[in-house]
Amino acid sequence: MKIRQLAAIVAGLAAGAALADPSAGDATRGAAVFKAQCAACHLQKPTDTSAPIGPQLNGVVGRKAGSWDHFKYTDAMRKSGITWNAKLLDEYLENPYSLVPGAAMGLLVPFEKNRADVIAYLTSNPDELKQKERAP
Is 103 helix (H, G, I), strand (E, B) or coil? Predict the structure, then answer.
């Protein structure tokens, strides 16, 4: 009986560790979370032509914060010195104002699993999600 309890505890800790790792998300679920929570403000595809409320997220992983030419970022974001990776995106989505005081992000993603899934979606297929600049 004690071995089963110990195995259950170890399995639970492993599951918690997986959630704490932003790269452990599911890209398919992330696409649904993105569509429900992010797509209203962020352009999802390079072919979107509407004026964005938030910057385009195609190719965001590896991009310097505040650098997409077709969006007016806050001074705080432009001067943050951040280059986006999964860990920083997780911190930002959880509480943008803690990572970048003066940020203008209008939505928090409080659930760790949702953040991991969105990050997995954004990093799942870099060629497909790669940012394509448009003429101003």
Answer: coil
* DSSP H or E segment with residue 121: helix 112-123
Most confident option among 24-28, 45-49, 85-89, 129-133: 85-89
Token duo for residue 14: 């492993």
The span from the CA of 125 to the CA of 114, in Å, is: 18
Please name the residues in contact with 56: beta carbons below 8 A apart, sequence gap of 6 or more: 42, 43, 46, 48, 68, 70, 71, 131
**Prediction pTM value:** 0.74
> What tokens were used for 32?
């649904």
Tokens 């951040």 sit on residue: 82
**pLDDT tens-digit profile of 79-99?**
999 999 999 999 999 999 999
Could you tell me the domains of the chain? 2-129 (1.10.760.10)
Give the residue from 42, 22, 58, 10 showing the smallest Cα distance to 106: 42
